[in-house]
C-alpha cells in the first residue's frame, strides 16, 4: 500500500501499489489544475502538461519519468512530474500546482 500525502491540502490518501497519481488525486477531491488546466486538460493522456506536481518526498517510490514527461518537463526541475504519467509504488509527498 502507498500513502500519498498532499502537502498543500494537508490530506493523505491510501492507494494500492501501482496506482495512477492523477486518478487517486481526482478520486479524492484533490484539485490538480489551475483555471486554464480545468478547462483544457487532456484527460490524463500526457498531452497537455497541465497536471504538473512537485514531489517533495518519496521520488524513489514512483515510476521513472516517461518520454512524454521528459519532453513536457525538460525545462522544469527533476522533482516535477505529470500526475497522469506517474505510478505510485510506495509513500510519497506531493505538492500540487507548483
Describe the SSE topology.
Elements: E1 2-6, E2 11-15, E3 19-20, H1 21-27, H2 35-40, E4 52-57, H3 67-72, E5 80-82, E6 87-88, E7 92-96
Q: Could you walk me through the main structural features you see in this protein, from its secondary elements to its overall organization?
A:
The protein is built from three helices and seven strands. The protein has 98 residues and is α+β, with helices and mostly antiparallel strands. Helices cover 19% and strands 29% of the residues.
Task: Looking at this protein, list some descriptive labels.
two-stranded antiparallel sheet; 98 residues; alpha+beta; 3 helices; single chain; globular; 5-stranded mixed beta sheet
Amino acid at each position: 500500500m502507498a500513502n500519498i500525502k498532499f502537502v498543500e491540502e494537508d490530506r493523505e490518501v491510501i492507494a494500492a501499489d501501482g496506482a495512477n497519481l492523477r486518478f487517486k488525486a481526482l478520486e479524492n477531491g484533490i484539485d490538480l489544475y489551475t483555471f486554464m488546466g480545468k478547462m483544457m486538460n487532456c484527460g490524463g493522456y500526457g498531452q497537455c502538461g497541465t497536471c504538473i506536481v512537485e514531489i517533495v518526498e518519496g521520488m524513489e517510490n514512483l515510476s521513472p519519468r516517461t518520454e512524454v514527461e521528459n519532453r513536457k518537463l525538460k525545462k522544469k526541475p527533476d522533482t516535477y512530474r505529470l500526475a497522469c504519467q506517474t505510478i505510485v509504488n510506495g509513500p510519497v509527498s506531493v505538492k500540487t500546482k507548483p
